[in-house]
Design a protein that fits this description.
The complex is a heterodimer. By secondary structure, chain A is an alpha/beta fold. Chain A is built from 5 helices and 8 strands. The longest helix of chain B has 29 residues, at about 120-150. Chain B starts with a helix and ends with a helix. Classes of the chains: A alpha/beta, B mainly alpha.
Amino acid sequence: MAEEEKPPAPAPAGEKTPDKAPEKKAAAAPAKPKGPAPVDASGKPLVANLSNAVPGAVVAAQEFVGETTVEVAPAKLVEACRHLKDSESFAYLVDLTAVDWKQRTPRFDVVYLLHSFKRGNERIRLKTRVDDGEECPSVTGVWMAANWMEREVFDLFGIRFTGHPDLRRILTWDGFHGYPLRKDFPIEGIDTGAAIYPDRYPEGGGPSPNDPNRRTVS
Amino acid sequence: MSDDVSTRARADHALDSGTAARTSTLEGEPLLGLHEMELNFGPQHPSTHGVLRLVLKVDGEKIVSVRPDIGYLHRGTEKLFESETYVMGIPHTDRMDYVAAATNNHAFCLVVEKLLAVEIPKRVQVIRVLLDELQRISSHLLWLATSAIDLGAMTPFFYTFREREQVLDAFEEYCGARLTLNCMRIGGLPVDITPRFLQMVHDFAGPFLKRVDEYEDLLTENRIWKKRTVGVAVFTTEQCVEWGVTGPPLRATGMAWDLRRAIPYECYPELQFDIPVGKNADTYDRYLVRMAEMRQSIRIVNQCLEILDKAPAGEFKGKVPRVIKPPAGEAYACVESPKGELGFYLVSTGGNKPYRMHVRPPSFINLQALPEMAKGHLVSDLVAVIGTIDIVLGEVDR
């Protein structure tokens, strides 16, 4: 994954390439002994090719600890993945997961990590922002491997994937309510009753609201 | 028979002719045909290596489709990472792939070290690689024992567990634990190695190649073993890449891709070893690849011992801050675990706990290909297929 830091290539007549790359890079260069710092990577040929081939796909791109991360618009995600797989030989989908940024407005980041054997084991990370209740396009049509990974994200984060052939819970059981990896899910877990009957049990478990022995705080 | 239309037509016919149409117990599954039967394989079946439930649709003895049902061991490890400091997260990794704890610890530490940008002393790297390779051998030995038992060969179990015991004893001497090792720390190791540990590894490594010959004597040319494994569950390079399958199943297709060489970490670039590959991509080749990997691992162990014999005591920690607070950002680090690519994806916001720690478990991804691999085989071959993927359910379910 050790990609040599190429100077940002002159931006081809692309649309979405921000031209402030050089000064950011200069600022980050002496910071090396302190710790890694993100560097704008929209000038990298790979990213530039992507934004040329799929106009409007690349929202931002940065390089951090030797890893390239490209933020992709959700509407262009599948097209961008197709391009990366077919034209740039990123044949292997390493990982697919999500991150919950509870306070942010598009709440979730769905994160894809791609690997290319032909490009000397180069890797690229794609990110797309999805809000709570929004659907994310499925990439199962591009890589078979995405099937269970998307099911896992659906199960633990509650992000639905449009076009997924078999979107069911995978790690928790059928009939479970709640999405464990969301930041507002309690770390202790929830009561089994509450997991099955969320309407009859209070959130976070405990006895039913109809239970005469139920004690409340107030 | 397998396509939905004919299945439905047959079921309709069965309904018309007074035979009750049988529906699958699973939601969303098409009706079962007249000759089809649903069979629950697991979750308490001994050959599923844990609690894996497979819902099979069989036509006679032939497998029409397989539907894995996992999650029985789900403990929310990723959630636990978020609630505890970085150092407290390491013991949780032991419990994922519980037969290869060292590589799990290693991958966890690597990703944090990547964000912290700490320099790992050479001697620490060598000890880590030594532990990793011992772990790989013990994991492959366990795999060999159990998958041979699944296919009816009892004897290899007694042979391999003799050597596995030696490895576990060495681990016990090093860190006090035999299985859940917790043997690495961010920036280094918990304790230094002892001369007794080195001696134990020497005692193990010396005759080990002969021991591998013994296992191969039992199985490699064994007619029953070959009948059960040759040509079973062929999975080509293209299929492996498409399904994200890594580790020995990928190498058995002839593709020499190993993270220790592809994306090198620690001191692997300075060590001499080969990447064994197979040719036919079947269960037998996967067996051969794992046997050859053990031989290569012992080569690495011997090189590490050579270095450590010259420096039996010394530093075992890099320069890390007392409170571990990686800078805000994200990183992914991976190691070649005995099962394939084991990766950790860390998102830090600068606090002393990970904001998000995701595991890319090789078993989970490799298991996904099981329905593809098992399709068209006999029910008895399914046992061989589960064995050949080498899954650990603790890692699948996390």
